[in-house]
């Protein structure tokens, strides 16, 4: 390993266990390392670089905005921010957008919107947020409280109070949990990402919609990882035939630049007044210009190609030696291997493929536009590593 990793080890806080690869460039789904190697990137920066490295359309959109205005704060109007909000609303039917800079912030905003909505409607004591066991909603103290995995909580308590977790896919438990608390909202991921790439049952998601409607409280869908085409649909809730009241998204939206968005539907679009929330960087024109260039390409024909590639991955890996099961949706895929996932990922790197893990699974989040041939090559390598006894 070289100078970069030495510096990193000396000066970067010890939160990240990095792989021994210094990435210095890339083209589409291929990453270049400082030692002159090429890797097929099956992680896309954790589902962020939706169109891969150095995508021409995205790069042109970003650099053209960069040469005009890089930042103004939210005291002034800028075109990319307004146009992106319009496009998000036109494509989803949601009514208003709040921009931030990350998934955790998008969820913070969703939680604030839900708490204010329900406080005004039912009383300030209705402040509890119901989320699922095994969920992941972020790393701030509030979104950690929302995250239903104790391993993330320890030694960081007290977390923000008012968060309760109920098991996924248990409709009666969800109803009981909502009714037995002073609930302000239910928040779920339709496909649990960090929790192991597990798609929720359709009946359960529909029941979450019905129960929240009966209680008169917002349903929040966390589309931070699943959103922006990742699930094979523009947003994963669309495959479930429901309409949420609040949607949070981030990761893949900016194509590689930090942006979060919280979309407010009919029920909640009027909830915020001047001063209720804010962000210095939120709606940054360069990030929004990049996001526009991503979102405008996520049309029906592109999304059906994502679903086709997904089908290929499921078929190729389900029948592979050493693979126990394949889960997920779209190009958000969890592979349960007989071998330990970390060993498979480590050996895939040696063979030129970058993969992720989620819990005990190998997780694949390739760029949405990964060429079929490149995808096939990566899957052949992953399958060959999984098959080693
Ligand atoms: C990654 C993720 C987050 C947190 O996003 P950050 O940008 O890291 O703050 C929240 N929710 C889900 C579902 C995620 O996958």
What would you note in describing this structure?
By secondary structure, this protein is of the alpha/beta class. It is built from twelve helices and 17 strands. The chain has a seven-stranded mixed sheet, sandwiched between helices. Strands 1-2-3-15 form a four-stranded mixed sheet. β2 and β3 (38-41) form a beta hairpin. It is globular. α3 (56-66) runs antiparallel to α9 (285-295). The structure holds pyridoxal-5'-phosphate. Pyridoxal-5'-phosphate is lined by residues 102-104, 107, 136-138, 189, 193-194, 222, 224-225, 250-251.
Index terms:
alpha/beta; Aspartate Aminotransferase, domain 2; seven-stranded mixed β-sheet; 12 helices; binds pyridoxal-5'-phosphate
Largest sheet at a glance? 7 strands, mixed
Query: Quick one: how many beta strands?
Result: 17
Gross geometry: globular
CATH class of the largest domain, named Alpha Beta
Radius of gyration: 21 Å
CATH architecture title of the largest domain:
3-Layer(aba) Sandwich
SSE-based structural type: alpha/beta
Order of helices and strands: HEEEHHHEHEHEHEEEHEEEHHEEHEEEH
- Poorly predicted parts: none
CATH topology of the largest domain: Aspartate Aminotransferase, domain 2
Placed side by side, the strands forming the largest sheet appear as: 4-12-11-10-7-5-6
Q: Termini, distance in Å?
A: 29 Å
Enumerate the distinct ligands: pyridoxal-5'-phosphate
How many structural units, i.e. domains? 2
Helix content: 25-40%
Count of alpha/pi helices? 12
Strand content: 15-25%
Q: What's the mean pLDDT score?
A: 97
According to CATH, the homologous superfamily of the largest domain is Type I PLP-dependent aspartate aminotransferase-like (Major domain)
């Amino acid at each position: 390993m070289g100078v970069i990793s030495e510096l990193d080890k000396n000066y970067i806080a010890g939160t990240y266990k990095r792989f021994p690869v210094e990435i210095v460039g890339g083209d589409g789904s291929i990453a270049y390392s400082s030692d002159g190697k090429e890797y097929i990137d099956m992680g896309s920066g954790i589902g962020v670089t939706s169109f891969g490295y150095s995508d021409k359309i995205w790069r042109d959109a970003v650099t053209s905005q960069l040469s005009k205005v890089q930042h103004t704060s939210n005291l002034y109007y800028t075109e990319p921010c307004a146009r992106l909000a319009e496009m998000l609303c036109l494509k989803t039917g949601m009514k208003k957008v709040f921009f931030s800079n990350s998934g955790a912030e998008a969820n913070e905003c969703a939680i604030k919107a839900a708490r204010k909505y329900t406080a005004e409607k039912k009383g300030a004591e209705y402040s509890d947020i119901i989320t699922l066991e095994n969920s992941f909603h972020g790393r701030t103290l509030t979104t950690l409280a929302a995250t239903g995995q104790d391993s993330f909580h320890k030694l960081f308590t007290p977390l923000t109070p008012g968060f309760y977790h109920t098991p996924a896919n248990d409709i009666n438990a969800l109803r009981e949990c909502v009714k037995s608390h002073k609930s302000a909202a239910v928040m779920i991921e339709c496909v649990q990402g960090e929790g192991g790439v597990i798609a929720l049952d359709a009946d359960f998601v529909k029941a979450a919609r019905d129960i929240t409607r009966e209680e008169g409280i917002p349903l929040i869908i966390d589309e931070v990882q699943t959103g922006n085409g990742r699930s094979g649909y523009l947003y994963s809730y669309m495959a479930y035939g429901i309409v949420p009241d609040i949607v949070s998204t981030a990761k893949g939206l900016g194509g590689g630049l930090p942006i979060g968005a919280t979309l407010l539907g009919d029920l909640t679009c009027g909830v915020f007044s001047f001063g209720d929330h804010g962000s210095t960087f939120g709606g940054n024109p360069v990030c929004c210009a990049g996001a526009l260039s991503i979102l405008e390409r996520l049309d029906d024909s592109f999304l059906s190609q994502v679903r086709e590639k997904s089908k290929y991955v499921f078929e190729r890996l389900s029948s592979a030696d050493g693979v126990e099961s394949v889960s997920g949706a779209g190009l958000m895929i969890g592979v349960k291997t007989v071998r330990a996932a970390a060993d498979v990922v480590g050996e895939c790197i040696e063979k030129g493929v970058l993969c992720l893990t989620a819990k005990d699974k190998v997780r694949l989040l390739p760029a949405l536009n990964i060429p079929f041939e490149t995808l096939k090559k990566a899957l052949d390598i992953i399958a060959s590593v999984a098959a080693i006894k």
